[in-house]
Design brief:
This protein is mainly alpha-helical and about 100 residues long. It has a domain at about 60-95. The protein is built from four helices and no strands. The longest helix is centred in the C-terminal third of the chain and has 13 residues, at about 80-90.
């Protein structure tokens, strides 16, 4: 874990004003989740035309996307239904996918 006050880029004035943001008490919220429990990542999304104009080479493309509402009492069923919807929309099979990341929020 990052120790309070050692999180790079965090404003020291903000830490003094809101010390609870950097408390390591294992409660995840928008103020501490990224710095304490996740690694860093960035994704640059744009049109093919804009990428070409900037001299960038595409590394991936979004073929389609889907979302779905599911019964909140029966948790963790949404990813199954939305995966089926997504594969059908993209005209793909489960075996066409190398790696999945599913988030049930």
């Amino acid at each position: 874990f990052v120790m309070p006050g050692e999180m790079g880029g965090f404003d020291a004035v903000a830490v003094q004003k809101h010390p609870e943001v950097e408390e390591v008490n294992h409660v995840h919220h928008a103020g501490n989740s990224s710095g304490i429990v996740d690694g860093a990542a960035a994704v640059l999304l744009g049109s093919k035309k804009a990428g070409k104009a900037m001299g960038l080479k595409p590394r991936a493309r979004i073929r389609t996307f889907a979302n779905i509402g599911s019964e909140p009492v029966l948790m963790l069923t949404g990813p199954v239904d939305v995966t089926e919807k997504l594969l059908k929309r993209a005209k793909m099979k489960l075996s066409d996918i190398d790696l999945f990341e599913l988030n049930e929020a």
